[in-house]
């Protein structure tokens, strides 16, 4: 209840026998006093509120700027601490390269070294995950980086997909390069000549790769042949296939040569495959359909070769594969490695 209200009630009780004018003149000094007390009270309350506001702002500043200032003073020492410091032995590739069976080099150390991450890094670095992902994407054996996970104490797990050899492009006995199913050039040093002979060979290609190791070859003939070889890799030895090569079948309106592909067995049988998977003609059978036709022919005849080895097999037309007799074995330009 307001102070002046209390005063008026008390005065009315004490001076109930006084006239209205006397009451008014007697109450005036008390009213002035009450008003002055209210003004002073509001002023003091304002001052107190101001001080509380300043204290609050000061506390907010301490809570906001304080940790930042403290981190500036000790952050480097904390980040360099053993629990946060990332070293090569604390980086794990999932799956490890040695589990795939065809990688002969230390993928992890090479990727970290090339990215400058083999010396010092901290799991507190905000961009560490992206830097690690980029470093491993650039390695020629890594097809994709699926996930990077940081853990405490310092440890990082990197989930990757590795490239798989699909074929070897052979220009001569000394000039050959392994490639994956997309025609990406793989590290040649990881293959001995003996190991290279175990893979399907791509021949009749002029010139080496246009890009570095880890990049696509840069020739559609290699790209198409690699996909065909990859599709037949499981049965390559069973069919006794030797190589896959492009065949020039014409020239387009722009003057660019048009290619189809042919497979050759070790005995010289030629298998007309048709266009590559990336430039098939309208209505042409798919890669999987042609592979199925070849499997059906091999199962029905027991082999892809005639008794004298002098025949062609055509997979291009609709329906089952057809046989085309010929008088001589197919040529062996750019013969496979021996």
In angstroms, what separates the terminal alpha carbons? 110 Å
Strand content: 15-25%
Label the structural class. Answer: alpha/beta
What is the strand tally?
Answer: 13
Main sheet makeup:
8 strands, mixed
Oligomer: single chain
What string gives the helices and strands in order?
Answer: HHEEHEHEEEEHEHEEEHEE
Structure explained in plain terms:
A hairpin with a 3-residue loop joins β4 and β5 (155-162). With 338 residues, this protein is an alpha/beta fold. α1 packs antiparallel against α2. The termini are far apart. An eight-stranded mixed β-sheet has the order 7-6-8-9-10-11-12-13, with helices on one face. Helix content is 36%, strand content 21%. It has three domains: 3-79; 85-162, Ubiquitin-like (UB roll), CATH 3.10.20; 165-325, no CATH class. It is built from seven helices and 13 strands.
């Amino acid at each position: 209840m307001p102070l002046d209200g209390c005063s008026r009630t008390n005065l009315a009780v004490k001076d109930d026998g006084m006239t209205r004018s006397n009451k008014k003149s007697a109450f005036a000094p008390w009213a002035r006093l009450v008003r002055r007390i209210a003004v002073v009270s509001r002023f003091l309350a304002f001052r107190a509120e101001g001080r509380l506001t300043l204290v609050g702002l000061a506390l907010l500043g301490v809570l906001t700027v304080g940790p930042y200032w403290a981190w500036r003073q000790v952050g480097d020492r904390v980040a360099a601490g053993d629990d946060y410091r990332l070293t090569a032995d604390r980086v794990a590739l999932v799956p490890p390269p040695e589990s795939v069976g065809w990688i002969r080099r230390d993928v992890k150390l090479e990727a970290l070294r090339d990215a400058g991450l083999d010396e010092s890094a901290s799991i507190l670095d905000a961009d560490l995950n992206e830097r690690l992902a980029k470093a491993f994407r650039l390695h020629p054996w890594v097809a994709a980086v699926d996930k990077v996970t940081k853990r405490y104490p310092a440890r990082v797990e990197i989930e990757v997909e590795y490239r798989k050899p699909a074929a070897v492009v052979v220009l001569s006995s000394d000039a050959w390069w392994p490639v994956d199913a997309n025609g990406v050039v793989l590290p040649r040093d990881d293959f001995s000549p003996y190991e290279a002979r175990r893979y399907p060979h791509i021949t009749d290609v002029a010139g080496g790769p246009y890009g570095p190791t880890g990049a696509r070859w840069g020739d559609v003939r290699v790209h198409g042949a690699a996909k065909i070889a990859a599709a037949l890799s499981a049965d390559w030895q069973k069919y006794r296939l030797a190589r896959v090569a492009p065949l020039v079948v014409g020239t387009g309106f722009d003057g660019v040569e048009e290619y189809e592909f042919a497979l050759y067995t070790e005995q010289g049988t030629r298998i007309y495959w048709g266009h590559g998977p990336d430039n098939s003609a309208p209505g042409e059978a798919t890669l999987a359909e042609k592979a199925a036709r070849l499997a059906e022919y091999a199962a029905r005849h027991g082999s892809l070769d005639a008794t004298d080895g002098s025949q062609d097999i055509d997979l291009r037309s609709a329906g089952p594969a057809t046989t085309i007799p010929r008088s001589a074995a197919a040529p062996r330009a750019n013969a496979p490695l021996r």
